[in-house]
Amino acid sequence: MPLKDIQFNLQTVDPCGARRAEFTTDHGTVQTPAFMPVGTAGFVRSTMPKDVAETGAQVVLANTYHLSLSERLATVQRMGGLHRFMGWNQTILTDSGGFQVFSLPQKEITEEGVSFAYEENGERLFLGPERSMEIQRDLGADIVMAFDECVEYPSPEAYVQASLKRTTRWAARCREVALQPHQFLFGIIQGGVYPHLREQSAREISAIPFDGFAIGGVSVGEGFDLMQTVVRHAAPFLPEHLPRYLMGVGLPEDLLAAVSLGMDMFDCVIPTRYARQGTFFTRLGKIRIMDKTYRKDKYPIDTHCSCYTCLTYSRTVLRYLFFTRDPLAETLATIHNLTLYQDLMKDMRQAIADHRFETFRKEWLARYNKTG
Fold this sequence. Notes:
Oligomer: single chain
Strand order of the largest sheet: 4-15-14-13-12-11-7-6-5
Helix content: 40-55%
Shape: globular
């Protein structure tokens, strides 16, 4: 498949290794470090696309596995692709479906791919490299992820090594599948929590001419320290002139650590899932709005936040909305959490440009951890 030019422009590298850059797709320029809200079945839950755009999000993620089930793929195709289906005119990334497939029970892994039981009715389905590419091609996202095996934590070293070799073979097969002219394909690094296997996988995957590279297989229970170890050993082997994406991460402290290790892109359900459960992220830590502490609190969630939620509603009103189970509560919480995350990314980009990222990271975490 002929390579396209993702027009990756590495603008600044902080002394600690944090990178500020930008790249371009047919649906806009993305400034990094960037956090991508997750719209699993095509939509970020509890919000409208304009709400997500107003938070400052530049890219959203949709899930190949969920969008391929039943009549969903046909529905997206009838609408002319994900952008029209989602009402989102900026960049979209689709994952390969690998993470969801490998978390399912009764899966059978062969060289060809994975057969598994459909969650709703037990029907046996199959997903392999070629099929994952075909689905993502039909969905029409700007960035497509190669099909990989996401191993459990913990897993024996021998199995992880065999798995990463299979992931490399699958990656090469994905590269051979023709995509739409506007689509870019990213390869995924695996290797569990074994540093030498992460290095091996990074060397093998980066030898394949992908448009960007991701580190997968984290946020599977390994914890903060091991996540950093994984990134520290894999990132130096990834090409400097292409985007680097850490999949499934995370909490604000995770993002700050990973950016300092040279990663550019991130996604996670945490800010939106926590929002729907009544947990708000602020610059001074997390607020669990159902706590009686906020019963008469007339302050906004975050006094330094300019999102619609903070400009309009107090903590006591938001607590009331959650207790009455009004759907508006989840919408307002999601808007705020996504705004907080996008503000954090924007501030990180500025700190990198100013060559003061480590100072910024320490100061931000010192405030955040006071009550978080």
